[in-house]
DNA sequence: GTGAATTCCTACCATATTACTATGCTTTCA
DNA sequence: TGAAAGCATAGTAATATGGTAGGAATTCAC
């Protein structure tokens, strides 16, 4: 039940950008400040850009900026983008033979609580 | 952020044993009822035995029984055994260079909520 | 307008994990 | 005594993880 470094790195990069907001930061600055491989971070931050959490400026003196105010971006948004949807299990196909899918109650409760927790945390609180 | 089938299968097996409690069930019975590969389940249930959640009776007419009452066993116990500890991130070694480890707040809050949720659900509620 | 600094794109790669399967031994009861 | 159960260990195909490599495209400072 570990989260991958993708979620962690993505979140840390977003917080770094939140600190600079509304100014921009480039990959080198973020990767050095956060001690994350620059090349890897480059591919990760691409996901955040494609999902409209950050915008980029190309070319010399380019970099990245948050698209929204840090108050409007939640940890849940970031983590879902980096890791995919939260706890989607037991759609029925796995446990059709069991009369009642006993474990679905667990996954549903859990997914609800995780989402509630993560979407309540805004980047502005993490600066 | 998916849970593996190990957690799911382990939980379903435990619920199946809870239904039978205090009688025993064998691998074939559980695997057929839950539609889980018998051989795979055998290795999974071994973990539950080594962690003292179930006891086994060997030999002909053998099988497995819960060691405690279903009211005394939580989903959290089962899932931690099957998947390892819940959300242990950010021990400091990853993010020492950042002045404050911004993401640790997220993982700590999250781990707390996940544990609270999972340890509050008892097998007796899932029957 | 040239060059350096930056992002963007795609492919590759080593390792670990997952979800099994296979084989065979050991134990126990009918 | 033999069949039915659990126990132990190893193998394996597919996928995910956590990167690296190389270079193309863009943009700004000069």
In quaternary terms, these chains amount to: homodimer
CATH class of chain A: Mainly Alpha
Kindly report the average pLDDT value of chain A.
89
Q: What is the total domain count of chain A?
A: 1
Counting DSSP H or I runs of 4 or more residues, the number of helices of chain A is 5
- Using the alpha-carbon principal axes, give the shape of chain A: elongated
Structural class estimated from helices and strands of chain A: mainly alpha
Helix content of chain A: 40-55%
SS elements, strand count of chain A: 2
Looking at CATH, the homologous superfamily of chain A is: Winged helix-like DNA-binding domain superfamily/Winged helix DNA-binding domain
**Can you summarize the main beta sheet of chain A?**
2 strands, antiparallel
* Annotated CATH architecture of chain A: Orthogonal Bundle
Name the largest protein-protein interface in this structure: A-B, 44 and 43 residues
What distance separates the N and C termini of chain A?
Answer: 26 Å
CATH topology of chain A: Arc Repressor Mutant, subunit A
Strand order of the largest sheet of chain A: 1-2
Give the amount of beta strand of chain A, in percent. Answer: 5-15%
Walk me through the structure:
The structure is a homodimer of 127-residue chains. Chain A is built from five helices and two strands, in the order H-H-H-E-E-H-H. Chain A has a two-stranded antiparallel sheet with strand order 1-2. The radius of gyration of chain A is 17 Å and the shape is elongated. Chain A is mainly alpha-helical. Chain A has one domain (5-126): Arc Repressor Mutant, subunit A, CATH 1.10.10. The model of chain A is unreliable at 91-99 (pLDDT under 50). The two termini of chain A are 26 Å apart. At the A-B interface, helix 1, helix 2, helix 4 and helix 5 of A face helix 1, helix 4 and helix 5 of B. Chain B binds a DNA duplex (30 and 30 nucleotides) through helix 1 and helix 3.
